[in-house]
Write a structure and sequence with these properties.
single chain, alpha/beta, eight-stranded antiparallel β-sheet, six-stranded mixed β-sheet, 21 helices
């Protein structure tokens, strides 16, 4: 986009932005002729990706601000009215809106509610911050047609975001996401009313405890062994951190009502959009858990738990044999949950007909082996929990399978159908019960994991994220993926690539025989996967919400191998694969 077009977009933005902070921010850049900064803020408009709308807070179409929120909400309202014309004509459309602890989250949430109210929706707005899974629950509980949560999940404090949900409580997928974007791009006028008008008309309804109580009761209802918890709860000490987000109110109350002792990290308990004690409020990253681990060692706790700011992700750590805490990865917790849920359903006689577990395509394949041995189906889906929810919706419609668990490697788990998104609160409760169960058998979670490695083979998983900021970064990312797609890889780290799955092209093939292409049924997505002769998988996927490419390395070994030797071989292979990935990035980028 040339300079003239950039400045026109900036001037149009200043004209239309109602928030004085964001308006003045851009006007100052225009006055200073800051071409570089203006280009970064206006060369594109934020679009819905795997996590919805997300970006750095600030003025501009490539930023998160009231202008973008207003347009997104008006577009959402227009789309829902067209998609559900009978309800719209009858004035029966409704929406639920929640927000987290980030800067401007409350402002963006209220703006969303008032625009929806002005468009004829009954807008249910939480009075204060709530977790993302509770928003999904509220959409279903209240019978809403759509929902919005204002959050940027685990991103740094300068970010905020906007996730749109459909009437099943799941984030929007095709065709709705594409349809909403088309409506957003076509917006010429935004309808809104004041808070007072919305409340007086009954189009704005404030909600809190009535949904909180039902959500917490649902979480506890999914546990398998309430008697064990009542008997043994006093034997387990938990240290928890909400990382300055929304999780404390529910985690403390749910686990506390179970009789469990929960010590919350005091410096991280209260909501704070600056996230002052961490660089990133991400339970996937060890530095974010530093304070929790220090408190756990001091208190001699049995388990550390963490949720991200909107409490959809869940992280954990447990003491090893030497007493030092060991972080449990997203894949490892998914394996432990898969094992525990299948085992528990069998023991309690609650295994349904045609049970199925769902994981994302870049997640460890170890659960596949556990599911197969226990006669449970395992389905794959694209990355992003909305695709797991899409599978849940399909099972509801076809009634061919019964969902019992879904997860992805990025610390997202779902153990219920009342929420159609990842749920860190439910994961915390299930992890607490699982810890108690294995403790009653004389084992720790790590010891159970080692047993599973012995039975199913050792698996090691790694992830590499390479950032490409700015307009030049977008082109670099395209070039890297194009090169990988055109040239392929016949070997990786000395291992033969026996299959390439190109999800953007909806095919898989043997690179030694490119003419062997066969179709795959997954929705199109810009993902390449390389399957190695030993069962390992290397995947490349540009992020849908951030300017970076993620490479996933899933290393598999056969059952029966000596565990220490299998770990050494996996480490060596992982190191070689990482080196090759960096080499490819550097040569192309």
């Amino acid at each position: 986009m040339d300079k003239e077009a950039i400045y026109k977009r900036a001037l149009d933005y200043v004209r239309d932005e109602q928030n004085p902070y964001f308006k003045n921010e851009v006007q100052n850049l225009i006055d200073k002729n800051d071409d570089g900064e203006l280009e970064d803020r206006f060369y594109q408009s934020l679009e819905f990706g795997t996590g919805g709308l997300r970006g750095i807070i600030g003025g501009g179409t490539n930023r998160m601000n009231t202008y973008m929120i207003n347009r997104a909400t008006q577009g959402l309202a227009n789309y829902v009215k067209k998609a559900l014309p009978e309800k719209a004509a009858a004035g029966k459309l409704s929406a639920a809106i929640a927000f987290d602890s980030r800067h401007y989250s409350d402002v963006f949430a209220e703006a969303t509610a008032l625009i929806l109210a002005a468009n004829g929706f009954t807008a249910y707005l939480f009075t204060s911050l709530r977790p993302t899974p509770e928003l999904s629950f509220a959409v279903r509980e209240l019978g809403c047609d759509t929902g919005v949560v204002v959050t940027a999940s685990h991103n740094p404090p300068q970010y905020n975001g906007y996730k749109a949900y459909w009437n099943d409580g799941a984030q929007v997928t095709e065709p709705h996401d594409v349809g909403i974007i088309e409506e957003v791009n076509a917006v010429t006028d935004v309808k809104t009313i004041t808070r007072e008008e919305a409340l007086k008309s009954g189009k704005l309804i404030l909600i809190d405890k009535e949904i909180d109580d039902k959500y917490q009761a649902m979480v506890k209802s999914k546990l398998f062994r309430p008697d064990l918890i009542r008997e043994k709860a006093g034997e387990v000490s938990i240290v928890y951190t909400p990382l300055h987000g929304t999780g404390a109110m529910h985690v403390e109350k749910v686990l506390g009502s179970m009789g469990l002792e929960v010590k919350t990290v005091p410096e991280q308990r209260n909501p704070d959009g600056d996230f002052p004690t961490v660089e990133k409020p991400n339970p996937e990253e060890a530095p974010a858990l530093k304070m929790a681990l220090e408190l756990a060692e001091k208190e001699k706790a049995d388990v550390v738990m963490a949720t991200d700011p909107d409490a959809d992700r869940f992280g954990s750590a447990v003491p090893g044999k030497d007493g030092k805490f060991v972080l449990i990865s997203g894949n490892q917790m998914g394996v432990l949950f898969t094992d525990y849920i299948i085992l528990s359903r069998k023991e309690t006689g609650t295994m349904p007909a045609n049970p199925v577990i769902v994981r994302s395509i870049v997640t460890s394949t170890m659960p596949d082996r556990i599911a197969e041995k226990n006669h449970v189906a395992l389905d794959e889906c694209l990355t992003g929990f909305k695709w797991i929810a899409s599978c849940m919706r399909s099972y509801d419609e076809k009634k061919d399978k019964t969902y019992i668990f879904g997860f992805e490697e990025s610390y997202g788990y779902n153990v219920e159908t009342e929420v159609r998104d990842k749920d860190g609160i439910s994961a915390a409760a299930m992890c607490a019960e699982m810890t108690l169960y294995w403790r009653s058998k004389g084992k720790s979670l790590l010891e159970r994991l080692e047993e599973l490695y012995g039975e199913y083979g050792y698996f090691e998983d790694r992830a590499i994220s390479k950032s490409f900021p700015g307009i030049t970064g977008v082109e670099t990312m395209k070039r890297i993926m194009s090169t990988l797609r055109k040239e392929g890889l016949k070997t990786i780290a000395g291992k033969t690539v026996v299959c390439i799955r190109d999800i953007a092209e909806s095919v898989k093939y043997d690179p030694a025989n490119p003419g062997s292409k066969t179709p795959i049924s997954l929705p199109k997505s810009n993902v390449l996967q390389f399957f190695l002769e030993d069962g390992s998988v290397v995947s490349a996927r540009p992020s849908g919400t951030e300017p970076k490419i993620k490479f996933y390395i899933n290393i598999a070994s056969e059952p029966g191998k000596d565990l220490s030797e299998a770990k050494k071989l996996a480490k060596d292979l992982g190191d070689k694969i990482e080196k090759e990935i960096h080499s490819v990035i550097n040569s192309v980028g």
